[in-house]
Amino acid sequence: MTQDGPGGGRRVVVTGAAGFVGRALCARLAADGWQVTALVRRPSPDLPAGVAARVVGDLAAPDADLAALVAGADAVAHLAAKVHVMRPTPADEADFRRVNTDLTRRLAEAAAAAGVRRFLFLSTIKVNGDGTAPGRPYRADDPPAPTDAYGRSKAEAEAALAAVAAAHPGFETVVIRPPVVYGPGVAANIAALARLCDTGLPLPFGATRNARSLISVDNLTDAAAVALAAPAAGQRTYLVRDGEDVSTGELIRRLRRAQGRPARLVPVPQGAMTAALRLLGRGALADRLFGSLTVDDGPIRAELGWQPPLTLDQGLARMLGRG
């Protein structure tokens, strides 16, 4: 570990460090000169070199000594969360509140009391909602409009953070709301789409007109690292993306180009496919395939000078192991 770089040898505690984004963020922060302590539920052999692991079990447990875990830290990057599920049960909804809302509040209170200066929270674009109209991307200052328990739990966590910051002068929070995140090892819907593309079969998405913002894990962790260190980021919320929005058909075209395959897109009318899926009771799938969700990343660019280091094409190539 070097003390050169934005971290300057300061200590940061990272929760959710063994996850898809957490591992990448730990590597980036260590490279930036932070002393990184990774909080993990169980021993993890996949943590980057130069990162100190601390096995802590369930952070959301009532008896978790959060104060001891953040003592002596200059910053906290809070990524631990119960992630979104398609059909949440009542038990899932209770866990969303326990892990995403209550833990965030308790951890922020412990950090503020310990003298931590900067608290970065990885939230979700679902705080804004589930879809945008053409030409009207989500903005950070839009009124929260979550449509499910996961989004509500994150919106409530953001409100709790703001309350802790208001009660503790000098305690600065930074919130980042990403859209769909992809990259090497991702297990989300985009990985299934990539596998479908790799079959080479013709796909009926040549006439899609929707627009989606995406962000690669490399771009997301770059934005998080910049925001964690930037003085101007205190008490700010940022939406982030790769830099261009694409339709489902264009995303398939880009994936197949990265795979070295022809696009093979059939121009079936989007309306017809949407209607057919809804008749089959697959309305949620229709929304994911043909709905739009775009974000305005202007503030993080203007205020912090952030630019995504990878283009969408470069990010997709890296996800596929070809970049």
3D structure, described in words:
The chain contains eleven helices and nine strands. Helix 3 links the parallel strand 4 and strand 5. The longest helix is centred in the N-terminal third of the chain and has 24 residues, at 90-113. It has helices at 20-31, 66-70, 90-113, 149-167, 189-197, 217-229, 248-258, 270-279, 283-290, 298-304, 312-319; strands at 11-15, 35-40, 52-55, 75-78, 118-122, 172-177, 180-182, 214-216, 236-239. The chain has 323 residues and is of the alpha/beta class. Helix 3 (90-113) packs parallel to helix 4 (149-167). It is 39% helix and 12% strand. The strands form two sheets. Strands 3-2-1-4-5-6-9 form a seven-stranded parallel β-sheet, sandwiched between helices. It has a two-stranded parallel sheet with strand order 7-8. The two termini are 26 Å apart. It comes from Caenispirillum bisanense.
Going by CATH, the homologous superfamily of the domain at 11-183 and 216-242 and 294-309 would be NAD(P)-binding Rossmann-like Domain
Distance between the termini: 26 Å
Main beta sheet strand tally, sense and closure:
7 strands, parallel
Strand coverage percent: 5-15%
Protein structure class? alpha/beta
List the helices and strands and how they pair.
Elements: E1 11-15, H1 20-31, E2 35-40, E3 52-55, H2 66-70, E4 75-78, H3 90-113, E5 118-122, H4 149-167, E6 172-177, E7 180-182, H5 189-197, E8 214-216, H6 217-229, E9 236-239, H7 248-258, H8 270-279, H9 283-290, H10 298-304, H11 312-319
Helix pairs in contact: 1-6, 3-4, 8-9
